[in-house]
Amino acid sequence: MTTSAGIGDFRPVERAREQKGWFFTDWAVSAFQTTVAGVLFAPYLIEIAKAAAVDNRIDVLGLSIAPGALPSYVITFSTLLSALVYPLVGAIADRTSRKPDLMTGFAWAGALCAGLLFFMTGDNWWFGSIMFIIANLCAGAAVVVSDSILPLISTENERDRVSSIGWAYGYAGGGLLLAVNFLMVTFADQLGLGTALAVRLSMLSAALWWAGFVIIPWRRIRRHEPADVEDVSGGVVARSFGQLFVTLRELPQYPVALTFLLAYLFFNDGIQTVISSASTYGVEELGFETGTMLGIYLLVQFVAVGGAIFFGRLANSFGTKRVILGGLGGWMVIVVAAYFVPEQTLLPLLVVAVGIGLVMGGTQALARSYFSLFIPAGKEAEYFSLYHAMDRGTSWLGTLVFGLVYQLTDSYRPAILALIAFFVLGGGLLALVNTTKGIEQAGNRVPDRA
């Protein structure tokens, strides 16, 4: 049996098998990202911190903090720490053929810490905070390695389709488990559990889901030998730092990739801020109940499944860059529409939610596959670590603008509208990206549609 070109070329079959396994990396980790990080951890941590508070304050490393602010500090610390750690993770991953093992190791470590959140009871908010920080850090590291596998298991022409299906799997898996946990928490008393136990069981289920389903890609993805590894001496950490320094020094040689990264920082920050602020906007500005907004969250998740696949097909017909730009135009329409949604009027809110679902998965999935075209062979994990590290390192910009505009106007409507600036800036920078030139600079093959 041969894998050379011709009648005996089995490479497409091997890639298809790996791709089907890789889809489950998004399916697995999304359970943690939605059920734990997205919905349940923050409000439950606040309740635990309140139990330990004295005069509505807890002591955090000598600082007096209100329990309601604790999740923001925990998530911010985890985010900034990840921005420092991920580049090293990428450098280590690019020096080994065992990327699936590394990805799975991070996933299992993160799932273990997420599962230990089940024991966050009483007033032990310190324990819960530390476990979440580690779990969140491991989740991001697993995603860095997972994303770096994408160029290894797909050709340039397959990249958009594979990335889009992966995002769709993520939304479907995360949404499915969240729906089950939503029912369990909602009907906790009828089930004889109580809300606190239902929340803890939900977080435990996300950990088990994550740890269990990551076995599928671990078993199906081959161990690809690293390419173009830098000749640096020392132990594994020293060699990885050496490789990272070489990559950073060479990065200016790929100006198109840098331009796209800058564009991504702006428009992705806008996307993340809309997503993270949607619940606050719906409850505080539009007057909906928290349960209604959770239902809207689930609607967005499931619409995003079709949206990701739809955008992947559009990219195959019209080119990835054009479709991403179209998606950013859609985001601009969404924030304008959200500004005009009347209070306690459900139908317009549902229309906005469906719009978010359609463009959310598509723009993020295509951004991932588009960026992969600008990565030189052998640098996949390092470049994706910079992709995620820069994303997390600047993820406070959108929320800062949102908060400042609200503080100045005392209304969330101009705050949500102000986010249009991120899509305008990101789209303007993306329009400057010369796709063909960037792909050629990286030494990759230009796909039929880009």
UniProtKB/TrEMBL annotation:
<feature type="transmembrane region" description="Helical">
    <location>
        <begin position="254"/>
        <end position="271"/>
    </location>
</feature>
<feature type="transmembrane region" description="Helical">
    <location>
        <begin position="21"/>
        <end position="45"/>
    </location>
</feature>
<keyword id="KW-0812">Transmembrane</keyword>
<feature type="transmembrane region" description="Helical">
    <location>
        <begin position="101"/>
        <end position="119"/>
    </location>
</feature>
<feature type="transmembrane region" description="Helical">
    <location>
        <begin position="166"/>
        <end position="185"/>
    </location>
</feature>
<feature type="transmembrane region" description="Helical">
    <location>
        <begin position="392"/>
        <end position="409"/>
    </location>
</feature>
<keyword id="KW-1133">Transmembrane helix</keyword>
<feature type="transmembrane region" description="Helical">
    <location>
        <begin position="347"/>
        <end position="371"/>
    </location>
</feature>
<protein>
    <submittedName>
        <fullName>MFS transporter</fullName>
    </submittedName>
</protein>
<feature type="domain" description="Major facilitator superfamily (MFS) profile">
    <location>
        <begin position="256"/>
        <end position="450"/>
    </location>
</feature>
<dbReference type="InterPro" id="IPR050495">
    <property type="entry name" value="ATG22/LtaA_families"/>
</dbReference>
<feature type="transmembrane region" description="Helical">
    <location>
        <begin position="125"/>
        <end position="145"/>
    </location>
</feature>
<feature type="transmembrane region" description="Helical">
    <location>
        <begin position="65"/>
        <end position="89"/>
    </location>
</feature>
<feature type="transmembrane region" description="Helical">
    <location>
        <begin position="415"/>
        <end position="433"/>
    </location>
</feature>
<dbReference type="InterPro" id="IPR036259">
    <property type="entry name" value="MFS_trans_sf"/>
</dbReference>
<keyword id="KW-0813">Transport</keyword>
<dbReference type="InterPro" id="IPR020846">
    <property type="entry name" value="MFS_dom"/>
</dbReference>
<dbReference type="GO" id="GO:0005886">
    <property type="term" value="C:plasma membrane"/>
</dbReference>
<feature type="transmembrane region" description="Helical">
    <location>
        <begin position="291"/>
        <end position="311"/>
    </location>
</feature>
<dbReference type="InterPro" id="IPR024671">
    <property type="entry name" value="Atg22-like"/>
</dbReference>
<feature type="transmembrane region" description="Helical">
    <location>
        <begin position="323"/>
        <end position="341"/>
    </location>
</feature>
<keyword id="KW-0472">Membrane</keyword>
<dbReference type="GO" id="GO:0022857">
    <property type="term" value="F:transmembrane transporter activity"/>
</dbReference>
<dbReference type="Pfam" id="PF11700">
    <property type="entry name" value="ATG22"/>
</dbReference>
<feature type="transmembrane region" description="Helical">
    <location>
        <begin position="197"/>
        <end position="216"/>
    </location>
</feature>
